[in-house]
Amino acid sequence: MTRIQHPLELLAPAKNADFGIEAIKHGADAVYIGGPAFGARYGAGNDVAEIRRLCAFAHRYRAKVFVALNTILRDDELEESRQLAWQLYDAGADALIVQDMGLLELELPPIQLHASTQTDIRNAAKAKFLEDAGFSQIVLARECSLKEILNIASQTTVALEYFVHGALCVAYSGQCYISHAHTGRSANRGECSQACRLPYTLVDDKGKTITENQHLLSMKDNNQSENLLALIETGVSSFKIEGRLKDLSYVKNITAHYRTLLDEIIAAHPQYARASSGRSTFTFAPQPDKTFNRGYTDYFANDRQDDIGAFDSPAFVGELIGEVAEIGDGWLVVDTDQTFHNGDGVCFHDAHGEVAGMRINRVEGNRLFPAEMPEDLTEGATLFRNRDQEFERALEKESAARRVAVKPLFAETAAGFRLTLTDEDGVTVAVDLPKTANIGHEIAQNPETALAKLRENLGKFGNTMFQAEPVELQLSQPWFLPVGAINALRREAAAALEAARVASHPHPPRAAPAENPVPYPQEELTYLGNVFNAKARAFYEKHGVKLIEDAYEAGNEKGMVSLMITRHCLRYSFNLCPKEVKHLKPDPMTLINGSERLILKFDCKACEMHVVGKMKKGVRLNVGAIRPASG
Asked: For the chain, which domains are there?
């Protein structure tokens, strides 16, 4: 009886096709990328030809390409988005990542649909609804705990995707409107202004200042390295790395890190398998601490915990390296056992708590000579390294290779010889070498040496995508065969096998909607439902929703409303939680940044914080909004 193996998918970000190719080289089973329009990361778009190029490379390894088509859409954008979906399908894309349910009412190509993080999936009812609607894979809210994931998995069969690394939006994805309210740039339209990274002063309901000038809505970065096996055991099958706007060294380093961890799990647990083909080798040791981060947290995976915020700074401080032991004229000495290199970047917190950095021009052991000596650096200051020049240079070079295992069989035929290559996925090609006056008529003078050389040459796949397993020979005699002819035969067979792999790439089928789908979990949708076009309205009405408000971006919301809903709670962060301190009440608080004032309201039953505000006067509204919902 054959054991069924469950594939585990490492899903990496691709700012562009070249980044996506590197992610695959470094072990990604799938990459996600923005197309030319309608992706929820403004500035990370790519034309269809580039996506076609990425797909051709990815499919050689049975890796997949998912394209983000995940903004909410105006009525006048629906036809353009439909046409784009077909272009992406024709280019070879394996799935579309979708937020706007209006797309499901259009004539889409037979391509898989994945529910975007903006669809805010944090319970089994929502997950089951999306499964019944025809989604093949859904990304769970970053806030979901292991227990919540297990509950969702127990009630669905859809593939569950979960963010394991990268920046954390403090709000439930799709439920943040501060950017649009203050600047007209909608996060649900891919143009977030990142108000969560600004400094704020926190004031209680009596006007008392709790803390000043801290980045109170800025989270540390997500890192689920320690929770991977637990996530697998709860039902997660796709492990997503955030970062379509991150640099290439981040993509290489973090992809290689999680590839290494997942391979260790797969090796120890034979019920799991990789979701694509080939093995990656690296010229460097992956180290997440050396890549941009705001400090790490596993967020709510193991329920609510302290110290999830990056309140001091949203910048990259880097790895702790030691204290300043001495300062001289243009130099400093660091008390540390770390090794430094010319070009390193180091930083410290100045007297105002801000991160101040310097670039090291020259290194003499622990004596560092900065390009410019900071005036407020003092002895005893704690130093961090936020650029390791040697590590970055290693990543600037070719830093990974990915090879697919192949079994070569060289056999004698009636007309000459045949080289058959069979790869690890069972794809097979055969190329013939006919007998000629110089081939197949002369027996080798030194049979043992000749056969060893033949095996060596047949197994030399060099810079191709293949790695040879032991060569099998089926010959009646140890024939003398010219090295040039054997090498040409091997090259021809390798090219044919690569083409066959691309041609036979198994495009994942589109999931059919359930015949009797469960109704949408709510009968009413407020602006939080992000319904921005008539097709989306028709979708929800078809699935049992009776009252539907327009999206916030339509400009019809008046007065003070929740501009952000988050599981992060500032009462909890400052030991003012009514659940923890019995005499306290969940009274409102205020966040202040310059002239901006945001009211904090606390839903203790749901254990959520609502950031309340209103749309600023003069903010440009999106055009093409649909009519208000009728009763």
From this structure: 6-168+220-276+284-290 (3.20.20.70), 315-396 (2.40.10.170), 400-503 (no CATH)
